[in-house]
Amino acid sequence: MLPDPLHTRLCDSLGMKLPIVCFTHCREVAVAATRAGCFAVLGEALRSMDEIERDIRWVREQIGSGFGIDLVLPARAPRDATPEEIYAEIPQTHLDFAEGIEARFEVPAPTNEVVLRKWGGNNKKIARAQIEMVLDEGVPVIATGLGAPDFLFDEAKARGIKMIALVGATRQALAQVERGADMVVAQGYDAAGHTGGVGTFSIVPEIAAKLPDVPVMAAGGITTGRHLAASLCLGAAGVWTGTAWLASQESDLDPLVKERILAADGAETTRSASISGKTMRVLRCPWTDVWDGEEAPQLLQSPYQMLLTSRYLQGANDARRPDLMTEAVGQGVRFVREERPVAAIAQEMAKQARDVLQGFRSG
Ligand SMILES: Cc1cc2nc3c(=O)[nH]c(=O)nc-3n(C[C@H](O)[C@H](O)[C@H](O)COP(=O)(O)O)c2cc1C
Fold first, then answer.
1. 281 C-alpha to center of ligand 1: Å?
2. Which CATH number fits domain 9-357: 3.20.20.70, 3.10.20.90, 3.40.850.10, 3.90.1150.10?
3. Ligand 1 touching residue 195 (CB < 6 A)
4. Distant-in-sequence, close-in-space partners of 56: CB < 8 Å, separation ≥ 6
5. Ligand 1 centre distance from Cα of residue 167 (Å)
6. How many degrees, rounded to 5, is the angle at CA 254 between CA 329 and CA 188?
7. Which of 108, 241, 274, 342 is the most buried (most CB within 10 A)?
8. Does pLDDT of 124 surpass 80?
9. Which of 20, 23, 190, 254 most suits a substitution to test ligand 1, by most atoms within 8 Å of the C-beta?
10. Which residue owns the Cα nearest ligand 1 atom 16?
């Protein structure tokens, strides 16, 4: 019997049946994806220490220790100022411009705690506390976007934790492996969230060829089995996926945003630095449109731009105004057409990929 084309070295490295990593902020999705044969990585970048501890323990109770945690931390640790102190340094021109958007689109003031202010990238102390929580909880796999400080890599390596680095350029992939990354996510322009300017079809084979000894995952626009099969053909050992799970039945995303996702084609996403100060693919909204217009002042660096955005986003989410809300969404959203259970999404992806790959063998 021929070997299963979906059994790759990524399955051996991470201990799962399918070469699919599910990135999600929702712990119910993470558990369902693991039970469906994928490997789940839970995004905790915007969570407080208590929330991180609670999520890790809850997921571990459900599925044991086979999961990872993702933190997004810049390579250079930010200063020690509090988010409030950093916010107070934002230039008046930018505060006025942001207030203008809020007034023009009647964005209500936030009624809940402003989530973006919990980000470890805002403040050195928050970053270190998030890292220590994840290390102390003994999570076996840690993923990082935007680089991450050296001490995370050093301490993770000392404890035998596997490190996954998300990159948007080949030189970043080489640098992250040099400093100790065990696996690399080659994330193309199509992807949701922070992304570089190179398309998935170019970045994946280039990084896979340059790093033959490292399991490379393809990311960006992968929402079907055909995408999974293509990724393996490009030299990836598996796929890292986010958008595919956003509108799943288990996902705790606001149903109003799920509706927008189910109706969206890739063109409704935009790659804009207006949310965080670094290019990020999200659903278009008034904030991205106005900041990307000609009359906007120059965007601030992270974390200033992220903190500037935080009021608008929280106000939009608290008021549940779909015309204002946004979310990180990739171009593969056009294939996400139904709210389905996570297991059905994973099974269909695997079946379609197997059919395509086995078709090559028999053809
Ligand atoms: C809603 C959402 C939030 C995301 N937030 C993060 C994050 O906090 N950290 C991170 O490393 N990647 C984040 N990403 C990017 C994913 O890790 C992944 O690279 C991306 O979703 C892959 O592209 P795809 O959405 O086309 O599958 C996010 C993606 C989505 C959909």
1. 9
2. 3.20.20.70
3. no
4. 42, 69, 133, 134, 137, 139
5. 12
6. 10
7. 241
8. no
9. 23
10. 242
Query: Across residues 337-359, what is the average pLDDT?
Result: 97
User: Quick check: CB of 147 below 6 Å from ligand 1?
Assistant: no
What is the mean predicted confidence (pLDDT) over 215-232?
A: 98
Looking at ligand 1, which atom is closest to the CA of residue 188?
23
Q: Please write the tens of the pLDDT for every residue from 239-274.
A: 999 999 999 999 999 999 999 999 998 789 999 999
- Per domain, the residue ranges of the chain are 9-357
Q: Which residue has the higher pLDDT, 171 or 302?
A: 171
Please provide the DSSP assignment of 25-52 as one string: S-HHHHHHHHHTT-EEEEE-TT--HHHH
Q: Is 243 in the pocket of ligand 1 (CB under 6 A)?
A: yes
What pLDDT, on the 0 to 100 scale, is given for residue 335? Answer: 97
pTM flag (> 0.90)? yes
Place of tokens 């449109």: 289
